[in-house]
Specification:
The protein is mainly α. Helix content is 78%, strand content 0%. InterPro entries: CDP-alcohol_PTase-I (IPR050324), CDP-OH_P_trans (IPR000462), CDP-OH_PTrfase_TM_dom (IPR043130), CDP_ALCOHOL_P_TRANSF_CS (IPR048254), Phosphatidylglycerol_P_synth (IPR004570).
Length: 180
């Protein structure tokens, strides 16, 4: 149950308060580098888990929870520091909170969840770029953020469709024909 990838995921949870403390202390760019470290542990734990056959149900549930929890902490820090609008924060927060709630709900009901796909991973990278643009006050940062929010909503719709397809296939009755 507790293996290297899951321990890396646990470390990512511990980076959330570290990010918040550093951000709140006014070291916003340093906080961004803590966010990058969290992203690196995400990549590393996924790589190790797949490469060494260490994918577990616990890791499959905790990994996206750690990612979404970090993103919610980042959203809150950016909105409270007035670096992003509350409308953008609400759109991002509702999407991530919905993903966490939906994943937890289905996990605890014994249903399979849809693993991260290329669109989900691309969305995460796009969010990191948007945060970089905002923190470093680069041009078009807020327009780009809204583009990423749109992509993330599209990605969520794709996940919902994949989830429905997965459970429609799983719910089909097996043939009653007996081999002769």
């Amino acid at each position: 149950m507790w293996n290297v990838p899951n321990i890396l995921t646990l470390c990512r949870f511990l980076l959330i308060p570290a990010y918040l403390v550093v951000f709140e202390a006014g070291y916003i760019r340093s906080a961004f580098f803590i966010l990058l470290l969290a992203g690196a542990t995400d990549v590393l734990d996924g790589y190790i888990a797949r490469r060494r056959g260490l994918v577990t149900d616990l890791g499959s549930m905790l990994d996206p929870l750690a990612d979404k929890s970090m993103m919610i902490a980042v959203i809150l820090s950016l909105v409270f520091s007035q670096m992003i609008s509350w409308q953008a924060a609400c759109a991002m927060f509702l999407r991530d909170a919905g993903m966490i709630a939906g994943s937890a709900y289905f996990h605890f009901r014994g249903k399979k969840t849809v693993p991260a796909n290329a669109m989900g991973k691309l969305t995460t990278v796009l969010y990191y770029v948007a945060i970089l643009l905002i923190i470093f006050e680069l041009p078009y940062a807020h327009a780009y953020l809204w583009f990423v929010i749109s992509v993330s909503i599209l990605t969520s719709i794709i996940y919902i469709l994949q989830f429905n397809l997965l459970h429609k296939r799983a719910g089909k009755p097996q043939s009653l024909d007996k081999p002769r």
